[in-house]
Each structure stands twice: as C-alpha cells, then as structure tokens.
Amino acid sequence: MIHSIGYLGPFAPNFDDLHKITIQYTKHDGTLGNCDVQSDNASGIFFGYLEKPNRNFFAVRAQYGEVLVDLANPVELNPRRHMDGKRPGPKPPQFGDECAANLLRDMISANASQADALSAIAANTGLTVAT
Q1: According to the lineage, what is the superkingdom (predicted)?
Q2: Per DSSP, what are the bridge partners of residue 56?
Q3: CB–CB of 89/41 below 8 Å?
Q4: What is the pTM of this model?
Q5: What integer pLDDT is reported at residue 131 of this predicted model?
Q6: Chain-centre distance of CA 88, in angstroms?
Q7: C-alpha separations of 94 from 79, 97, 99 in Å
Q8: 130 is a domain residue
Q9: The predicted structure's pLDDT at residue 21
Q10: What is the mean pLDDT of each run of 10 residues along the chain (131 residues)?
Q11: Apex CA 59: angle with CA 131 and CA 41, to 5°?
Q12: Cβ contacts of 75-80, under 8 Å, gap ≥ 24
C-alpha cells in the first residue's frame, strides 16, 4: 500500500486549531494557504504535518477513510524512519507500509490516549503496530 504525508501549514498559527484544518491553513501573515491532498495513486494512510522554524517537521494527523486523528502530542519526523528517506517538499512524499507502521507506532507512543483510534487505522490498513 502507498501512504503519504501532506503539509498543513506552519506550526505556530495552526496547531491549536488543527481540528478545524481541512482544506486551508493559516500562514504566518494571516492569509490562507491550501493544504496538501493525497494523490490518486496513494491509497493508504494520509498523514499531515506542520512546520516549525528551521525546517523542523512534525506529524500531527493520521487519516484513513472516515477515521481522522489529530494528535495531542506532535511527533518529529525522521525521514529515514518515517518516509523511506524522503524529505517534505512541494509534493506529498509517498512511502511504504514499513515507514507508515513506524510513524503510527511513534504516534501511539507519544499519544497513549489516542492509541485506540491510531490502532484502528493500522488494523484497517493491515499494518502491525504492537510493540
């Protein structure tokens, strides 16, 4: 299965209102930008990330089908572990099951209260996230 991760905007003006972000995010200057969307050839989990200063990226969302989880505690992205060595860029990076499972595991580890919803996403995609 092909999974991907898309840009949801800069961290500071968006994290506290993450649950409101669907198609647009707030830029630092207060204007709106368009969120990345999952490409047609990626049928797996669509993760979302926010950017902190100095190009530090944090996963903040996991979505598959109707299940959408906005994380209480962001997870810093590790390109090798989470995105098959790819870096965030103008197109949402795509990656395989191993990296998607790693990212879900790290999300669960940082967000125990959201483990059931994240584990449901894993189960619905056939990924194993038990540690």
Answers
A1: Bacteria
A2: 52
A3: no
A4: 0.95
A5: 60
A6: 11
A7: 11, 10, 10
A8: no
A9: 87
A10: 97 94 93 94 96 96 96 98 93 96 98 97 93 60
A11: 95
A12: 75/103, 75/106, 75/107, 75/110, 77/5, 77/49, 77/103
- Residue 91 falls inside a structural domain: yes
Distance CA 12, CA 120 (A): 29
Residue 88 contacts residue 11 (beta carbons within 8 Å): no
* Total tally of structural domains belonging to the chain: 1
Q: Is residue 131 part of a domain?
A: no
**CA 96, 101, 54, 13 torsion: positive or negative?**
positive
The answer to the question of residue 48 being in a domain is: yes
Q: What is the DSSP letter of 119?
A: H
Kindly give, in sequence order, each residue whose CB lies less than 8 Å from that of residue 120, ignoring residues fewer than 6 positions away.
Answer: 67
> Which tokens hold the place of 105?
């595991």
Domain extent at residue 30? 3-125
42 token code pair: 């990626």
In this structure, which amino acid lies at residue 1?
M
